[in-house]
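Much of what follows relies on a compact textual record of a protein's fold. With that in mind, consider the following protein and its fold in token form.
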Amino acid sequence: MADHQPFPPGARRVARPAAVSPCPSCGDLAGRGYPGCRFCAELVDQYWLLDWQELLAAEQLTEGGAGERELAELVLADEVGRHPWTCTDWAMTLVACSQCGDELGAGPTDCWRCAVADGLRWSWDHTGYPAAMTAGEHVLRVARAALRAPHRRRGAVVRAWRLLMPFLLAGDLPTVGQLRRVRAAVIAGDYAELAACASHVELASFPELPWRRPERPARPEHRPEPERDDADRAPRASEHPVPDQPAADPV
């Protein structure tokens, strides 16, 4: 395979939109209909696809050709950081899981092969940050993965990423507190109101719900570990990230 720089960056071959806009196909904000809406799917996936097409060209292969599937398997078997993270993700869409037969990493929740593949992809984020991946690129990656396999995540997490996707495409980077407020409002049943918001700041402006504020117990008690989602595998940082620094524990 062609030589590449260690941890080559991804999703930078297409300029981000200056602002969010309605999708001409589904009518929601562009990107929010991913992956069911064709226009939204093309809008989101172009950042991944162009990197994959560059790799195909370097290997003198064509998209949809006989060698593309083999290349995808080689990319997934290669060492972490040899290819852009976008190419790792795209390769997973081209390879069927050997256990369940679905897209690798997007199969049913009881498929151990998909669970392993979905977990391994985040090694790139841990090792490549901050030189080769920005915080905005990481959260965009997490959002796309969640929307491609919504049955593998908690419903509130998936709906929160769906609400945020148009703003992530435009380069907005919510803080950890904003992300948690959005998820809390989704759990409270405010999805329709949230979907009418024009910015991620407006999304996160809903008042904090009283039932989300934990009460101090009368005496120490055991608290089980909270359920973790994809973003927990990312590099952890401060509550209010600076540019090129990922938010800690996003949604």
Notes: The chain has ten helices and no strands. The two ends are 37 Å apart (CA to CA). The longest helix spans residues 38-58. Confidence is low (pLDDT under 50) at residues 210-216, 222-227, 234-251.
